[in-house]
Specification:
The chain is an alpha+beta fold. It has one domain. The chain is 31% helix and 25% strand. The protein contains 3 helices and 4 strands, in the order E-E-H-E-E-H-H. The strands form 2 sheets. A two-stranded antiparallel ribbon has the order 1-2. Helix 1 crosses helix 2. Bound molecules: zinc ion (ZN). The site of zinc ion has 7 residues, from loops.
């Protein structure tokens, strides 16, 4: 059986996407900066163990989330939900 193709993002339908905010620490100055991501992006990245790019607005700085930062993001999002999505 073939899985149906899911197109995302759907270009014709617009709906407010749930987002998650969490504090990240700027690698340049150590300030806590709030980062906002769509929940779907974070969940996909955590399930597939992909990299997440974090951003600190104070220094316009992008960097890849470390393992520790990924763990913190998991806790913000709710790890049980993510584990439930993970293939056995
Ligand atoms: Zn900074």
């Amino acid at each position: 059986m073939k899985e149906p193709t899911i197109r995302f993002p759907e270009p014709t339908i617009r709906f407010p996407e749930p987002t998650i905010r969490f504090p990240v620490t700027c690698p340049k100055c150590g300030n806590d900066a709030l980062t906002v991501f769509p929940v779907a992006v974070i969940a996909t990245a955590l399930i597939e163990v992909a990299n997440i790019r974090l951003y600190a607005s104070c220094h316009n700085q992008w960097w890849d989330a470390s393992k520790v930062e990924l763990e913190q993001i998991r806790e913000y999002l709710g790890a049980p939900w993510i584990d439930a999505q993970r293939p056995a």
